[in-house]
């Protein structure tokens, strides 16, 4: 099969997951468990280059009448095999579910064990299941064992037993909020935990169990990275980061005239805390060196093929090889992952350290710069001060980088963000800024 054929098939599946045919998938899958689809909403699509394509939906459903006729939209075949989705705790009243549809391959034993169903379509095979079940993240079932609220449980759950052991004191989960869910990859929760010393906030990161040992190493490569503990089954417990994320410092930032504006060197200094042992870890491939996959994902979400291909060619032509010495890097150094103290005078934390390892400083700087370009597209008024900070951050990077190389790597970061854009306007913003960087334009030129 030609590479273009594989890309076309992938794009067709993305169209199915985003479009009205998704309703057929959800309706038929729920019907297999005696449930009737009421409403559905696509929350996010995950299309990793060279990997599976998945989608997450919020679904409202209710028990079906026993004698009602099957519903559904035309366009997909019936379910490929008799099966039942893993059922929610209560089916006697309208229920809200998080459902996952994915191209991941599952064996018959896996499907049976997790209550997944297989659906065939002209575009390919898809599997559907109900969160918190996940074939790669067994820890989800410990974090969310049922639909009961944490405060309503009469007996300690297995999660609370493990939290108590890891934290060194009897602990009870009072509140639990899911912040991130990337099916088959990871989930992040904010938990309010109480003990005899009072309440504290911790974060639970659920990952593939095979990744735990390496993630523990990565999280110990800087004093700014919050403490981490292993609770088993891929569940990691992280302390709450002190200070405020750079995004909050930048949002609606209107300091008094006598207060100096945020110094970009404060942000860059956080990278100096990364320890040499990070050089012994596996390296993360930066966006500038995985352009083919990024282009595929960008085109799949509707970006103009010709412009994307020209952008990739321009990035490749401008890259400097090598761009400097190998140093410890964060790998995902952006404004939400860097915390500063209340006065924004010192870095107070680095979070999301899953990508810490060897690399080139310019890629961390380009990641920060790319995300600064993105922020005004989320809230132009709230981030009205970002263009000024982005300009000063850009200037602070130039003494230690080649300008063309920095611009090319920042353009690659923007290309990597494009598939997750929230609107066509945001997509156009990312593409326009990336193209402008290759023409030598600066943040001041592009974020007016």
From TrEMBL:
SUPFAM superfamilies: Protein kinase-like (PK-like) (SSF56112)
Residue ranges of every copy of the Aminoglycoside phosphotransferase domain listed in the record: 270-373
Pfam families xrefs: APH
InterPro entries: Aminoglycoside_PTrfase (IPR002575), Kinase-like_dom_sf (IPR011009)
Superkingdom of source: Bacteria
Protein name: Aminoglycoside phosphotransferase domain-containing protein
Organism this protein belongs to: Nesterenkonia jeotgali
């Amino acid at each position: 099969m030609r590479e273009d054929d594989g890309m076309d098939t992938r794009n067709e599946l993305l169209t199915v997951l985003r479009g009205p045919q998704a309703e057929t998938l959800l309706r038929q899958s729920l019907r297999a468990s005696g449930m009737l689809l009421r409403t559905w909403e696509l929350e996010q699509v995950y299309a990793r280059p060279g990997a599976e394509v998945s989608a997450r939906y919020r679904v409202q459903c209710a028990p079906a009448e026993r004698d009602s006729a099957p519903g559904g939209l035309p366009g997909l075949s019936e379910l490929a095999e008799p099966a039942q989705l893993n059922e929610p705790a209560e089916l006697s009243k309208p229920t809200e579910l998080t459902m996952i549809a994915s191209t991941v391959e599952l064996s018959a034993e896996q499907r049976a064990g997790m209550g997944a169903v297989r659906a065939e379509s002209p575009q390919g095979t898809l599997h559907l299941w109900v969160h918190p079940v996940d074939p790669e993240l067994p820890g989800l079932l410990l974090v969310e064992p049922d639909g009961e609220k944490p405060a309503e449980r009469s007996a300690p759950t297995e999660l609370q037993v493990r939290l108590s052991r890891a934290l060194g004191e009897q602990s009870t989960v009072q509140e639990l909020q899911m912040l991130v869910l990337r099916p088959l990859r990871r989930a992040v929760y904010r938990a309010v935990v109480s003990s005899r010393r009072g309440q504290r906030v911790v974060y639970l990161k659920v990952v593939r169990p095979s990744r735990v040992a390496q993630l523990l190493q990565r999280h110990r490569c800087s004093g700014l990275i919050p403490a981490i503990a292993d609770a088993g089954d891929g569940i990691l417990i992280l302390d709450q980061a002190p200070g405020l994320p750079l995004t909050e410092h930048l949002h609606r930032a209107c300091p008094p005239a006598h207060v100096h504006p945020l110094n970009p060197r404060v942000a860059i200094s956080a990278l100096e805390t990364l320890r040499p042992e990070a050089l012994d870890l596996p390296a993360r491939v930066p966006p500038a060196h995985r352009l083919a996959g990024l282009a595929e994902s960008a085109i799949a979400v509707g970006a103009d093929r010709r412009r994307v291909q020209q952008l990739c060619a321009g990035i490749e032509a401008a890259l400097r090889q090598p761009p400097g010495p190998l140093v410890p890097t964060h790998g995902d150094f952006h404004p939400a992952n860097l915390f500063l103290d209340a006065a924004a005078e010192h870095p107070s934390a680095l979070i999301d350290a899953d990508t810490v390892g060897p690399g080139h400083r310019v890629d961390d700087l380009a990641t920060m710069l790319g995300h600064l370009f993105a922020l005004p597209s989320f809230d132009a008024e709230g981030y009205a001060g970002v263009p000024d900070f982005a300009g000063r951050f850009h200037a602070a990077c130039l003494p230690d980088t080649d300008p063309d190389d920095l611009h090319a790597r920042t353009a690659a970061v923007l290309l990597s963000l494009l598939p997750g854009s929230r609107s066509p306007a945001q997509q156009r913003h990312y593409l326009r800024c990336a193209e402008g960087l290759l023409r030598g334009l600066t943040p001041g030129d592009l974020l007016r």
